Amino acid sequence: MIHSPSSLSQIQAAAPRPHRVCAIRGGTVRFAERVVLTEIDLVVGPAERIAVIGDNGAGKSTLLRVLAGTVQLTAGEQAIELPGGVAFAEQQPRFRPGATVADALDDLLADIRELEAETQRTAEQVALAGVDERGELLARLSTAIDRLEARDGYELDQRVDAGLDRLGLGGLDRSRPVHTLSGGERARLALTAALASEAELLLLDEPTNDLDDAGIAWLEDRLAAHRGALVVVTHDRALLDRIATDIVHVEGGSLRRYGDGYAGYLTAREGERRRLLEAYEAWRQDLARQQALVTANAFRLNAIPRKLERASFGHGAFRARGRDHGAMGRIRMAKERVARLHADPAPRPADPLRFTPVFTEPAAASAGIANEKAVLIRAEGVRLDVDGPRLRLDALEVSPGDRLLISGPNGAGKTTLLNVLAGELAPQRGTLWRRPGIRVAWLRQDITTGSRATLLDAFAAATGAYRDDAADELLRLGLFRPDDLHRQVAQLSVGQRRRLEVALAVTCPSDVLLLDEPTNHLAPELLEQMEDALRDYTGAVLTVTHDRRWRERAGASATARQVYVAPGGLVGLPDSAGKQAPPDGSAGTQ
What we know:
Oligomer: single chain
Number of helices: 17
Largest sheet: 6 strands, mixed
Strand content: 15-25%
Strand order of the largest sheet: 5-6-7-3-8-9
Shape: flat
CATH architecture of the domain at 360-450 and 492-572: 3-Layer(aba) Sandwich
Radius of gyration: 32 Å
Structural class: alpha/beta
CATH topology of the domain at 360-450 and 492-572: Rossmann fold
Helix content: 25-40%
CATH class of the domain at 360-450 and 492-572: Alpha Beta
């Protein structure tokens, strides 16, 4: 760290700041044969807060890299002129081979370190310069100091130390090789540097990943205090709601911008859906009307006799029927209209997500079960403690309508608990009873690579539907495009495989729904739909999630119960008042 000169009276006033520009016009990004972004336009104002959302693989991270200058446009124009600098915190930052933590921080903050070095060099030159050279050097020093002060460079190291401490890296050995850090630690290191840089433009890619609640609260406060512009890719709806002034939705390689923050985005998207529905209904009614005209006029035409009797005798006693009588013209025009409507159909908007009704009580009755509480799952004295994951669960009952929110630190055993309750992992001791015929739907945290079957065949096989019916159902849900249906599941992106799980969960009847980090890999708009759909789901829902918005809304349900899994798999259950007391007495936070 350097110090400002003692005699600032010798330094000339700073020159006017140059014009700031951050814009992309008609931009296209292509990787080999794949077009990721096409004909995109984006302008970032000096103090705008823009959130970029969309499905995984849509091109959100690529857009950030274009703004950061690490990915070049294949076509189009880009103008990034920000003298206050650009800071980019990637999800998976890469560092030079052999770099230590200290080296990595210096590399991430290279532009400020260069400003520090330039200011120090120029100050030393001023001290040694003669009278003739001093004026020019003082002007250069003035400019260097202004640029450094604009980035609050004199407090940089203090901000780095504070950031590392707030993000759980305070005790990190700066001489440690950076490649020995976990992926989450490297991401937090990059995030700390970006926030400490005081850059004119901050580019953040999923900054809340791997942060605890305290870290997220600190991050939000830092972003709220940021004086420059911000472009952030995030699925965190609470963060979107607090910091975003505009939402950029990436879909199909294109960008669409919405104002009035996250609430304005949701309102605008619902308005778009209503307009699509109105246009589709008008198209459908017009098509039905034209088809009815064809049928009615064809009937009238067939009802006219081929010959009509004249009032005289002889060779002209009968005359041929006039074949049109107006009907032929009307049929022709109606058929032409039908053809045009079929050639240019109005797109059918996706149906809101709805879970197929559960059939818990009929299933219980058919099994001859008489159970007053309609218990679906009962666990007593369950233990796992040998050769694998550990779990200690004294007693738990799950009934229809229950909403269990399962929390605990990473690695404590939350997923293990779900596996046991689903019957996929047998307890070594204790009793686990599951109602005969119980049906369990899963959204798993770890998404498999998938099979070589096509998306359509996989969905049809899982739902027991004919392929044509399965295709109609998938397209009605709006989770996939028509050209996705014939792709192999193994070739789908992680986000698309997650949407397949969602499609199966809402389509196949179930009694228990297990959600293990359901917000991973899904766009915020779809999460809103899932939450709305779960309000009418009559089965039991057990959720493991770090998503603040999901926990807040699910916890407000009258049937919500909190379950805490402490390190070592010790499960604490709610007390009689419905409040959670962690089994080890620790705070019940994630």
